[in-house]
Write a structure and sequence with these properties.
With 159 residues, the chain is an alpha+beta fold. The protein has helices at 2-16, 33-38, 151-158, and strands at residues 19-22, 40-50, 53-64, 70-75, 79-88, 94-106, 110-122, 128-130, 140-148. The radius of gyration is 17 Å and the shape is elongated.
Amino acid sequence: MNRRISFLSVLFLFATTVCIEAQPHHANTGMMPGFKRQALVLDINAKVLENEQIIWNESDQKITLPGTPVGFRIVGSNIIVVMQFTPFIRRGESVLVAQGQIWITEPEKGVNYYTFIQQIPIEFDEPVYFFPLGASSPSLEIKLMVKPYKETAVKENEK
């Protein structure tokens, strides 16, 4: 219980100075036609909630190939969350592998380090909600959606 309270108090400080750093995506890099058929778009929306109010929100879109990880990093004044999301597309079941590391500076405890890895079943165009700090602590929520690559959809989002 104390651990959850510490997470919530830490996230309050975290939300005050948050930024997202992510790999750049390049939709117009002259992707080879064979890769365009396999390419995927990963929509990422991260937000911090406090008392069910959104106090910070950031979205990004990444282009990747199945089996190729997409890096994502959130940096705050007392927390760093580094994640990789790797989509694997199979005929029977497609999955998104989420793995990452969390460094949190807590008052009187110093720096704590946590790791996670999770395999999440996915369907195209269906949102997946991910809580790096645990489901019982929804203060940091990441919504992911995997879609097949379509040039027109990506170009519209770049405007």
